[in-house]
Design goal:
Layout: H1 2-25, H2 57-79, H3 85-103, H4 112-135, E1 149-151, E2 163-164, E3 170-173, E4 176-178, E5 181-188, E6 192-198, E7 206-207, H5 209-215, E8 219-225, E9 233-245, E10 248-257, E11 265-267, H6 269-272, E12 275-279, E13 283-288
Parallel strand pairs: 6-11, 7-10
Antiparallel strand pairs: 1-8, 2-10, 3-13, 4-5, 5-6, 5-9, 8-9, 9-10, 12-13
Length: 289
């Protein structure tokens, strides 16, 4: 019994001795040189997984569609004040870029049908812009209807009274641009200022959920709204006491409260419908009709 137990460490020493002997025989020592260093086997490293998976085709197509709509917004905005051939060439490039983006949407995408519809619309606008570029005519290009708001429940009558505190045009600076479309500061209820996109293709005024919560907007009804990803989405309608850009003020105006995907509001024709817009490089001019 004791003999068998003693053999186990002896076997281990034999195996260890054989391993050392094999390593030693792998290189011949040279006189005057340092003893050879045993080769250490390299560890096998498994390829690390990718930190993040590539976006799905559906998500990618949705982003492409949104970029195309942004280009269309920019084209429609610039066309409002385009007069020279250079202005119309810029509008033409915007429409071309929007169409090119829509053509990249896969036929298998759920956004394909909408993309094809917009391509047909934008082709007409592109042709118009190209003709204007050659003729240098100041006539405005047709504005694409990007957002449509259709009330489905009655809303209470409201009083709308736009006015200007001083005669003449109202000028406001452009803070930045979203996809080529101007962004300006807009004051709500005389207390809070928010950045808004001046959207010449929008019928109404659209605010974000954060804006509605901050302003404590009362709800007065609901509406259906077409977005880039879906059609006929039901959204709530709220009532804002006042909206102001400089001295241009609109009181008691119904607004659409968008879903969580919208992070900036849209200022549409319900606000500036009684004014002509002149969009310059660094400012917007509201010209009374």
């Amino acid at each position: 019994m004791n003999t068998q137990i003693g053999l186990e460490p002896v076997k281990g020493l034999i195996v260890l001795g054989m391993a050392v002997g094999i390593v030693a025989c792998g290189r011949s020592p040279v006189e005057g040189s340092d003893p050879p260093t045993p080769e250490v086997p390299q560890a096998i490293v498994s390829p690390s997984p990718s930190p993040s998976a590539a976006p799905s085709p559906v998500v990618q197509d949705q982003k492409t569609l949104q970029r195309a709509l942004d280009k269309a917004y920019g084209a429609a905005s610039i066309a409002q004040s385009a007069a020279s051939p250079g202005d119309w060439q810029l509008v033409t490039r915007q429409w071309q870029q929007a169409i090119a983006l829509l053509q990249h949407i896969s036929p298998q995408s759920p956004h394909y049908a909408l993309a094809q519809q917009k391509i047909n619309e934008y082709q007409k606008n592109l042709t118009y812009a190209q003709n204007q570029s050659q003729n240098a005519s100041p006539a405005p290009a047709p504005t694409p209807q990007i957002i449509a708001v259709k009330p489905v429940t009655p809303v209470q009558p409201v009083r709308r009274r736009p006015y200007s505190a001083q005669p003449g045009s109202i000028q406001t600076p452009i803070k930045r641009r979203e996809g080529g479309t101007p962004v300006i500061d807009v004051v709500f209820n005389q207390t809070q200022s928010f950045e808004m996109i001046v959207d010449t293709g929008a019928t109404g005024v659209v605010i974000t959920q954060k804006m509605a919560q901050s302003l404590n907007i009362p709800l007065i009804g609901s509406a259906k709204m077409d977005t880039a990803s879906a059609k006929g989405v039901t959204v709530p309608i709220g009532l804002v006491e006042s909206i102001a850009v400089k001295s241009l003020v609109v009181q008691n105006l119904p607004v659409v409260i968008a879903g969580s995907q919208l992070d900036i509001g849209l200022l549409g024709h319900d606000f500036f419908g009684d004014y002509d817009l002149i969009i310059r490089q660094d400012q917007i001019v509201f010209q009374p009709r």
